[in-house]
Each structure stands twice: as structure tokens, then as C-alpha cells.
Amino acid sequence: MGLAFLVAFPAGALLVRSIQSKSMMKIHATYQLSMYLICLAGLSLGLYLAIQQDKLSNPHAIFGLIIILLFLPAQAALGYVHHYYYKKKSRGSSWTNVHIQYGRISITSGLINAFLGLRLSGQPVGIQVAYTILALFVWSAWVIAVVLRDGNGGRRGKPRSPPWPLIGNAFGRPGSQVPA
């Protein structure tokens, strides 16, 4: 299940913001729902093992239940509400921001919980360290991609000052001036 939060969910989040298509929302929703179903299967297996090994009160099990049964369904509902208002107004709303930020929190929580799962399962320290390094790398790359992609605050055609002076210029954002 760690791969869902390490690779699949971040890829789905970046995909929807990177490809412009009329059917992208349907693709995004289907893809993320598929990943959620995989997580439900992982949760089922995890619950079975936790009950058998009397580890249901372990932080990994509790956090996993919260993420899979509360965070992710709420994220899907927020996505639906965001899409409803987006279609109605042809632009994002406050629901858009809530959906995006809640998704980022959910993915980060899942990455942390995957680490707790490695510790709980007694994986060697080397595996735990390797996962941590990989998770930090993927999370950092994801954050950088979001900053580069959303340097205009998510407002298409209305750029704001980029977080660093040359980002807007380096990527040819409309309205950016090339320094002399």
C-alpha cells in the first residue's frame, strides 16, 4: 500500500494538473478511485493481520484506518463538490483549494503511515532507511513540481510573482519579464 502513496496518488494529482483535456476529470477520478480500491484491499489485508497478531491498537493500524476510511472518502467527496462548482462557474472555487490541500495532506499522511507499517512489520533498518530516503525524494520532487506548475497560484492566465525571481521567466509564463 505504501506504493499507492509513494507513486500512484502523487502521479494522479500531477496528471490532472499537467494534461489539458475535456475528459481529464473523468480520467483523474477513475484513476484515483482505482487506487483507493487498491488501498481498501490493502486495508482489508492489514486488518486481518492486525486482528490475528493483536496489533489493532498500534499507531500504524489506527492511522491507516483514519486515512483509508476517513481521509480518502472525504477527498473524493471534496473532488466531486469541486467539480460541481467548477462546471457551474467555469473556474475554481474555495472547494478547489480545499480539495487540493486536503489531497496533499492525505498523501503526506499516507507516506508517513507507510513508514510506520515498515517498522511494525519488522523490516530491516536498511529497508526503512531506503523507504524514508525514497519517500522524501518523491515528496520533495512532488512539492517542487507543484511549485513550478502552480507558480501562478493555480490561476491560469493571471500569473503572480513566482516564488523565486527567475522561475516565471525560465518557463515562459505569460506576463513575466526577462531580466536585463
Automatic annotation (TrEMBL):
> Which regions span the lipid bilayer?
34-51, 63-85, 125-148
Q: Which UniProt keywords apply?
A: Membrane, Transmembrane, Transmembrane helix
Signal peptide (UniProt feature, chain positions): none
Source taxon at top rank? Eukaryota
This chain belongs to the protein called Cytochrome b561 domain-containing protein
Species: Ramalina farinacea
